[in-house]
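Just scan my protein:

. . .
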Amino acid sequence: MITRLNSQVDELEVGKANLDWPNLGFQYRPTNSFVYYTYENNKWSDIKTSNDEYIPIHIGATALHYGQACFEGLKAFHCNDKKVRIFRPQENAKRMKQSCDRICMPSLTQEQFIQAAKKVVKDNIEFLPPYGTGGALYLRPLLYGSGPKIGLQPADSYTFLLMAIPVADYYKGGMKPVNAVVVEEFDRAAPRGVGNVKVAGNYAADIQANIAAKKDGFPICLYLDAKTNTYIEEFSTSNFFAIHKSGAFVTPNSLAILESITNKSLMEIARSEGIDVQIRQISIDEVMNGDFTEVAACGTAVVITPISSVTYQNKTVHFGSETEPVGPVLKRLYDRVRAIQTGIEKDPFG
């Protein structure tokens, strides 16, 4: 799971930016630099560094006109043994390649991807939240068509960049449960579209529904399948999983869902604890009829966000209680992932 930076970083430099680490939120903040490669004449350049917050881009770039772009998200942690580790970058490299293949872009090798991740962490080490603050250095890789094409076709040149941003928990309050609403007016992704890859345009489609939901008091949206509107797919930016009353860990099976690296990690941990893991279709009726005792969203930014209620067609079903708002399985899985990420627990999976 974890990749440690090969060369030692200066321990005295970690967190030297001295930010208000617990209250960073999850938002853009300027740091020292970003790293990048450019692709021209059918090959990638050597890695480069820039301290500019802006990038020049051609007015005819395919990323601007046709959305030929994909991105990833991963985190680097300062651990209890004073080492710096990046959580599962090999998986992000693999998933970015799948996104690139789907929209006809050249991909980086796994070695190039990891080299970029390590370099951007080292170059911005003073912005890495120190161990014990609960924060991380969020890494955002982006690969896009930077060459001009006016007809619909792949670009001839591309840019990969990777920026680093210090973050706290995505949802302020960490494991504090939130209320979810099922989106009924819009679909998230078509059955044979691009919902299973991390292309940029997927997320713009959720903005309108997300804003409306927040106005109604729901911090997170849940989407059903576009074909039948009966099966759960995923939340706006996170996978769905739940604990069935039988004790099983259940998560949806759909070709329109992005495979979450966090969800994959949670499933591995669940199996190691003897929990039955089921990847299958989940009808919204199962949720609304009370078949699950715990429900959550999971992803790189949030790790786990417990869901306290789901509202659908004017009916609301609740999870947890006043005395135990976060279910015991969710709490245990969350604690295990965080312990592995921060070096408290040895990684048994890689």
Q: What stands out?
A: The CA atoms of residues 252 and 280 lie 5 Å apart. The first strand starts at residue 2 and ends at 4.
